[in-house]
Amino acid sequence: MTSSLQPPEELLSSKPKVRVSWQVAFTVAMFGFMYLPILVLAFYSFNQSAYSAGWKGFTFEWYIKLFSDSRILSSLQTSLLVAVCAVGISAVLGTLMAVGLAKYQFRGKSLYLGISYLPLIIPDIAIAVATLVFLAVFAIPLNLWTIVAAHIVFCLAYIALVVSTRLADLDPHLEEAALDLGATPLQAFLQVLLPQLLPGIVSGCLLAFVLSMDDFLISSFTAGSGFNTLPMEIFSRIRTGVKPDINALSVILIVMSGIVAFLGEFWRYQGEKN
Fold first, then answer.
1. What is this structure's pTM?
2. Any bridge partners for residue 47, and if so which?
3. Rounded to an integer, what distance in angstroms lies between the CA atom of residue 124 and that of residue 146?
4. How confident is the model at residue 8 (pLDDT cuts 50, 70, 90)?
5. How many Å apart are CA 86 and CA 123, to the nearest integer?
6. Helix, strand or coil for residue 73?
7. Strand partners for 58
8. What is the DSSP string of 120-154?
9. Which residue has the higher pLDDT, 163 or 244?
10. Three-state secondary structure along the chain?
11. For 150-162, what is the mean pLDDT?
12. Phi, psi torsion values for 18, nearest 5 degrees
């Protein structure tokens, strides 16, 4: 009689082998490269030591300390004011620019379209230096509103680009139908076109808001004396070393940026779904 039992070698060879493709390994390595420093930053933000070199214990002290730091709160207020003003003005101008470029034909339109999106590809340092030279030529003193004006330059381009993308997916016959039914061009824009563009406008505004809050170069070149934005305040503190309170502030900014990005994407998805 032949035994039905298989030798151990055959049993081992019959087990399925787990294979990891190079695509999976590359993806894991890529995400690890991007997010591992953020995890280390978040870990050391709870470090009880005043220096990030060694772990001394777990504490929420640095997060609590942030809310009593007058310099951090003042710079945060300045950044929020600059971002809200720049994004609000850019939302109006960017929406009108995107609609005008999509609906009207005029001489030099291609050239104007290319120039409008130049701030997206020009380095921040070039925009900062150009803005500073412009303000110096016209003897405009540096203050809070020069920061706002400089931020409008790149916020306008981002919002116009997002709105243009949204506008390309809309049915142009809806606005024409409203005009045929007796609506004025202004009524057709406000009651038909604008509600459809609203998800794109909100997404562009959220993106521009995050970029404005994050900007350092342009703000540092155009800020007057006594006006520090939050990135400028952070940079001034890390010259002597990164402390846990800066780690805690960075974690808060990362979380808030993630929430804003999620809300913008959710709003855009809901608009496309509707």
1. 0.80
2. 58
3. 16
4. low
5. 19
6. helix
7. 47
8. GTS-HHHHHHHHHHHHHHTTPPPSHHHHHHHHHHH
9. 163
10. CCCCCCCHHHHHHHCCCCCCCHHHHHHHHHHHHHHHHHHHHHHHCCECCCCCCCCCCECCHHHHHHCCCHHHHHHHHHHHHHHHHHHHHHHHHHHHHHHHHHHCCCCCHHHHHHHHCHHHCCCHHHHHHHHHHHHHHCCCCCCHHHHHHHHHHHHHHHHHHHHHHHHHCCCCHHHHHHHHCCCCHHHHHHHHHHHHHHHHHHHHHHHHHHHHHHCCHHHHHHCCCCCCCHHHHHHHHHHHCCCHHHHHHHHHHHHHHHHHHHHHHHHHHHHHHC
11. 90
12. -85, 120
Is the predicted pLDDT of residue 256 greater than 80, yes or no? yes
Report pLDDT for 18.
58
The percentage of the chain sitting over the pLDDT mark of 90, rounded to a whole number, equals 18
Token readout for 227 is 């006006």
Lowest mean pLDDT among 45-54, 166-175, 234-243: 45-54
Query: What is the rounded CA–CA span in Å between residue 208 and residue 128?
Result: 17
What average pLDDT does the structure give for the chain? 82
The token pair that represents 126 in the structure block? 């070039």
Residue whose tokens read 């609590």: 64
The tokens for 180 are: 């045929």
Residues 51, 36: Cα–Cα separation, whole Å? 20
Helices 194-214 & 244-273 angle (0-180, nearest 10): 170
Cα–Cα distance between 79 and 100 in angstroms, integer?
Answer: 31
pLDDT per position as a tens digit, 29-61: 898 888 888 888 888 888 887 765 677 778 888
Q: Residue with structure tokens 């030279």?
A: 133
